[in-house]
Amino acid sequence: xxxxxxxxxxxxxxxxxxxxxxxxxxxxxxxxxxxxxxxxxxxxxxxxxxxxxxxxxxxxxxxxxxxxxxxxxxxxxxxxxxxxxxxxxxxxxxxxxxxxxxxxxxxxxxxxxxxxxxxxxxxxxxxxxxxxxxxx
Length: 136
Fold this sequence. Notes:
seven-stranded mixed sheet; alpha/beta; globular
């Protein structure tokens, strides 16, 4: 699977209190552009919208340590979603046959590999950014 090389840096910090306001600030800037659901457009999906609100619900189900680990890659994930043209690993969701899970692979400037998951509803073709996680 090919990697997309990210052009932005991941967030600096070691605690949730340092990283969360930075990541939430990035999200709020995107959210201010629309009156409805916040989204970014993806080159891979032919400039279709990828909605961002599911990620925050998913994130709050994780423990504090895992939240920090994932939030560090938030700006990298948005960069990957917007500009990547590399084919993801796609498969049907084993928990829901009406969905497809797309897993994109990215690499930061410091050679750290991470994954971004996007869920696609087969019926409506809407896409939702669900998760970010580093390789290890």
